[in-house]
Each structure stands twice: as C-alpha cells, then as structure tokens.
Fold this sequence. Notes:
Blueprint: E1 19-23, H1 28-39, E2 43-48, H2 60-67, E3 72-76, H3 82-95, E4 102-105, H4 120-148, E5 151-156, H5 169-189, E6 194-201, H6 210-213, H7 216-225, H8 238-245, E7 256-259
Amino acid sequence: MxxxxxxxxxxxxxxxxxxxxxTGATRGIGAACALAxxxxxxxxxxxxxxxxxxxxxxxxxxxxxxxxxxxxxxxxCDLDDLQAVKQVFQKALDVMQGQIHILVNCAGIxxxxxxxxxxxxxxxxxxxxxxxxVWLLSQAAGRHMVPLRRGKIINxxxxxxxxGGLTVPAYASAKGALGQLTxxxxxxxSQHNVQVNAICPGYIATEMNERLLADPVRLRQISERIxxxxxxxxxDFAGPVVFLASAASQYVCGELLxxxxxxxxx
Length: 266
C-alpha cells in the first residue's frame, strides 16, 4: 500500500483529477454524496435507472454538479438487470476517458413485509440490487484498479449490517452480506493500494424511510433511542464520503463507518 502523502492536512481531502462512478445518486444520500465529491474536485459519472417510457430522465443531480462548475456525465442502467450491470463499468470508462479512480455503491431498494408473507420476488429484487449488483460492479472496478495499484471502493451498508430489523429480512440479509463483502475485498486488495470501505447510515430522513416517518409509534420509538436526538439528513454524509474517497483515508481498510447519531454506541 502506498503511504499517506506528506502534504498539508486539508490537501489530503482534495479529489482534483479523480473520476468517480456512483450509483443511487438521483436523490437522498447518493445525491448529497455526488455533490460533495464534485465539490472536492472529482469528475462524476452517475448511474441512473432508465427513464420510464414517455418520461424525461431525472437530471437534477447532474445539473446541480454542473451548476457548481463541476464535470458530470450520466449512464443508464436498471440495477436489477444483472446482465446490464455487467456492462456498466466499461460504459463508465468510455465516458470518463478510460479512468475510474473511485466507485461508490449507494443504490438500494427496500421491501417491507412480515417474514411469513415475504415473497420470493421481493427477496430476489432486494438481493440483486443491494448485493449482487454491488458485487458485479466491485469486481469490475477491482479488475481495473488492482493492476494500476490505485483506487477506492465505498459501499453503503446499514445499521442492519449489524442488526436484524423488523419486517425487512431481505434487506437485512443483503446489508449483512455487504459488510462481509467489504471486508473480504479489502483483505485481498489493500496490498494493491485499493482501499475498500463502507458507510453504514443510521435512521435518515429520506424517501426510503417514508413509511417509518409516517408511523407515529415507530417514529417515536426510533427517535427516542437516537442519542443525537434527531434523524440524520443526506448532507450528513458529505464529509464521510469525501474522507473515504480521498488520500486522508489511505490507511483505512475494511472499515464499516457508522454514521448514525450514536445509535450503535447505545
């Protein structure tokens, strides 16, 4: 592994000249991360779902990055289409001048149902998007990064990487496995100067948690247990993602960085 550069501290966080491939960045945590990485100087390639027939694509994040004076491109792929996922990394290389320095796997879906009634389709959908697509993208990234001896891969796990949750058996299984995948890849690739880490969000006020936010009982139960006495916001991930994407985290390997307002500490 290359040593941490001997430069002024703030310079360690610069991403100037770095190309980022990020999924799940049209809204919420992913959008906040994409903007933060662009603000730190990176050029961004956004992976977005194919727009539904007759609709316009969501270009809000793309336009926001460009409004900052940053560089951003979009490629389209439905992450539940695993054959299409296998083509994503090469497509990103094609639009980013043959270089991807950082991969951020932020996309995810949720299905809620009591385990007795949980459908096989919901199970497969969640595991394919939240785990298998991440594996395929990470493997493609590793094949690009390891020979070049440089790279960063950042996965998005969850508190359910550590806990079982309620009525989310597929999500908990996928995120638990993703934590182990993060460590497994780190064990192999750290020696090649490729750092693989994960961010584990706590309870964040995003669209994925709308059902919890709308349930007064669960909202009270969860909120009372958070030591920070508030739910997180997407902007709370700007600092952590830039840290893990930059030279500031050069000796951070296989870490599951919890960003949860103190939930796990309690």
